[in-house]
Amino acid sequence: MRRLRFLSVLLLLGCAVGLLSREPQSDPRLKQASRREQNGWIVVHLEGPPSQIGFQHGYLLAAEIQDAQKLIALLLNRDSDRDWAFFREAAKTMLWPRVDAEYRAELQGVAEGLNARGVKLDALDMTVMNAWQELSPYWYQWQEKHSGRKKSAAHEHCSAFVATGSYTTDGKVVMGHNAWTGYAEGQRWNIIFDLSPAKGSRILMDGFPGLIHSADDFGVNSGGILITETTISKFSGFDPKGIPEFVRARKAMQYSASIDDFARIMKAGNNGGYANNWLVADRKTNEIASLELGLKNVTLRRSKDGYFSGANFPVSEKLAREETSFPVDDPGDSANARRVRWDQLMAENKGKIDVAAGQRFLSDHYDTFQGKTDPNERTLCGHNEFSPRGMKPWQLEYAPAGAVQAKVTDAGMAERMSFTASMGHSCGLHFKAVEHLKQHPEFAWQKEFLRDLDSHPWTEFRAR
């Protein structure tokens, strides 16, 4: 009898523990949310007002966000020799007061979702994560300059194009982009966010765990706008009184219904953080644009028959001269070589550009500097791990870095709220972490986070 009572108590306790562990899943905020995985991507559908979208985000991606925060802390420390608390203070005093109430609520919601899963991060931690790419090097570079310390260099990221009119098969817009990062962080740039916010447009974009913006910036919205970008190399300049770039980027993705809307939102309160050449298209009019957003120099170019490309080169000579240390006359520089290759591909494929062509472009291994096919840091599908020259942002030869994923869409797909995406090198080459670290032990500091980066097939993703 005593044994039966004991077993009954254990059973009741077990039921209580089971109910407790399942309780957050019955939270009504999760009712419209979902998560699935496909071909290297994690696809999450988030829906509702800001705090609810945030809660869903934090809850569904809790393990990935916890892992990503540890990596970002390591990368920030490597760049600055400063700890996480230092950047939290910057977020508290400089960034948080300039975050819109809507996005404050979303960041707080992410933290609540994390806490429900036992991850002890708060809204300031999430702010640091979201502003990670503008805190270092842009803000930290400004902070060092004003304290008399050394300056750091702005990172290079990405190859991209947008074309329309006589350049495409049907005269309508086509856009493509691949993200260039270190493989440690790039392996984690595998989230596809299907957002249905209570206000503004529906959004389908790629992204990183915990970030409320895309951050490598590729997305379409139900207002008819397609958005991507590439960073401006060797850029310096920051305004600590401006609006954080991550806020403006998310706002533009959510509330733009025209190229004018996009330019207005991105320019308002521009802080110079994560300075980019933004490529934009309006599928309703088949007009495309390039918004080169420096801090002092801002240039908007538009076309209904042509193309714009991005490969981390400054377009404006004035911006290059006044706001960068970019080597405009060096044909061996990665950005310059890729710029030449984009022009070649656009000329060779005029009138034939479609989604399939865009996928080929982003898998291209032709090095214009050497005049031959050779996957390295000068090719559109970047492979720094093969190159003895090395990509300057990582400062070391054979760094595990390059193109980590790619996306392409056109006007028809964007109208259906869809795009194609390939996780890993879209060319089909795989990266093996153990093998690389064995050959290049100078990157052992990444060992905890560096994983294999396998190439996955192109896959179409569509808003639910």
Give me the oligomer status.
Answer: single chain
How do the strands of the widest beta sheet line up side by side?
Answer: 1-2-5-6-7-8-9-10-11
Q: Please give the CATH class of the domain at 159-190 and 229-462.
A: Alpha Beta
CATH architecture of the domain at 159-190 and 229-462: 4-Layer Sandwich
Unreliable segments (pLDDT under 50, ≥5 consecutive)? 1-23, 390-395
Number of helices: 15
**Any idea what the radius of gyration is?**
22 Å
Number of strands: 17
The overall average pLDDT, rounded, is 92
Distance between the termini: 55 Å
Structure description:
This protein has 464 residues and is α+β, with helices and mostly antiparallel strands. The protein has a domain at 159-190 and 229-462: Penicillin V Acylase, Chain A, CATH 3.60.60.20. The protein has 15 helices and 17 strands. It has helices spanning 2-22, 50-60, 62-80, 84-95, 101-116, 123-130, 132-146, 183-186, 245-255, 259-267, 317-323, 334-348, 355-361, 411-415, 433-439; strands at 34-38, 41-48, 159-164, 174-182, 191-197, 203-207, 218-221, 225-231, 276-282, 287-293, 298-303, 306-310, 366-367, 372-373, 401-410, 418-423, 459-462. The strands form three sheets. A nine-stranded mixed β-sheet has the order 1-2-5-6-7-8-9-10-11, covered by helices on one side. Strands 12-3-4-15-16-17 form a six-stranded antiparallel β-sheet. A hairpin with a 4-residue loop joins strand 10 and strand 11 (298-303). Helix 2 runs parallel beside helix 5 (101-116), helix 3 runs parallel beside helix 7 (132-146) and helix 9 (245-255) runs antiparallel to helix 10. The longest helix is centred in the N-terminal third of the chain and has 21 residues, at 2-22. It is globular. Residues 1-23 and 390-395 have low confidence and may be disordered.
